[in-house]
Recover the amino acids of this structure.
């Protein structure tokens, strides 16, 4: 299994898998993806939070308890831990086309970059030594941006020529200002780019507000969602101009149609599923969305079961 997973990832990086070359929504894409399992079993006691999926039908999950990374073949539903964690949390994550996983480190105040093929840590970064919870990450053309749910800042990991990873000294801290008001509880959480790629969108969990953040100045402007409040807003996914926002303890995903600049959005629908058990983050492959169940309302034990669920894009 380990060898097959490595081969699948390597093929995706070099030449691409056939299933990924068909646009979602076409008859061929549907025939491939619809036979994949709709429920994925994760290790007992794993405590998942983040998920990342790239071009290949491979999903990556991080453990809040150990930081282990679990890799799953979406075709078979089988997987294994391929990267041992540092003993601190792995939270939000993203995978790039160079088969590198960018992983937020939670209360450790750090982040790391891991090979999606070998599981080796390519680089580690300490963002802060203050009370923090580095929660989620988004990849843009020239940087990886991390949120901190306990500090009113974003962390920028600038990427050099051909995606070169920076030295620790090159990490930038961007204070949030403008409409942003830090409150008690969890603050900055999920993060994506705006549809026009000119700014960042950040959800504030404690207030249910969505903000458009200027990546040069840190000035945050409240996004007009027509009065909708993103209670318990967590991970987000942007597909063209459609924004999916996971509302974890509400067991729901809110779907918005955004304008290009990301300054306003209209609620299109909400998605629920009886299998949801505090979903936290969201990723897409083909015509499906995948969400891990963090089960925050269930006391974690070494025997607690965890799953991730696939739902159709509607």
């Amino acid at each position: 299994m380990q060898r097959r997973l490595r081969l699948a990832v390597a093929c995706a990086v070099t030449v691409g898998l056939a299933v990924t070359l068909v646009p979602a929504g076409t008859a061929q894409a549907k025939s491939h993806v619809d036979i994949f399992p709709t429920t994925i079993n994760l290790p007992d006691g794993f405590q998942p939070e983040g998920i990342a999926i790239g071009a290949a039908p491979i999903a990556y999950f991080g453990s809040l308890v150990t930081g282990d990374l679990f890799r799953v073949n979406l075709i078979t539903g089988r997987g294994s831990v391929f990267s041992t964690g540092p003993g601190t949390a792995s939270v939000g994550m993203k995978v790039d086309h160079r088969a590198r996983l960018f992983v937020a480190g939670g209360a450790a105040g750090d982040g790391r970059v891991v090979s999606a093929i070998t599981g080796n840590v390519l680089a580690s970064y300490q963002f802060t030594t203050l009370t923090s919870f580095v929660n989620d990450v988004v990849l843009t053309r020239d940087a990886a941006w991390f949120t901190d749910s306990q500090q009113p800042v974003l962390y920028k990991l600038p990427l050099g020529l051909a995606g070169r990873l920076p030295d620790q000294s090159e990490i930038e801290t961007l204070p949030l200002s403008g409409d942003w008001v830090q409150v008690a509880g969890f603050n900055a959480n999920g993060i994506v780019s705006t549809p026009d790629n000119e700014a960042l969108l950040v959800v504030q969990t404690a207030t249910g507000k969505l903000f458009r953040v200027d990546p040069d100045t840190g000035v945050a402007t409240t996004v007009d969602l027509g009065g909708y409040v993103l209670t318990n807003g967590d991970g987000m996914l942007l597909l063209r101009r459609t924004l999916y926002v996971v509302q974890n303890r509400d067991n729901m995903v809110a779907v918005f149609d955004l304008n290009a600049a990301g300054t306003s959005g209209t609620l299109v629908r909400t998605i629920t599923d009886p299998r949801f058990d505090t979903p936290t983050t969201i990723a897409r492959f083909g015509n499906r969305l995948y969400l891990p169940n963090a089960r925050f309302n269930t006391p974690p034990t070494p025997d607690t079961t965890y799953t991730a669920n696939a739902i159709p894009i509607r």
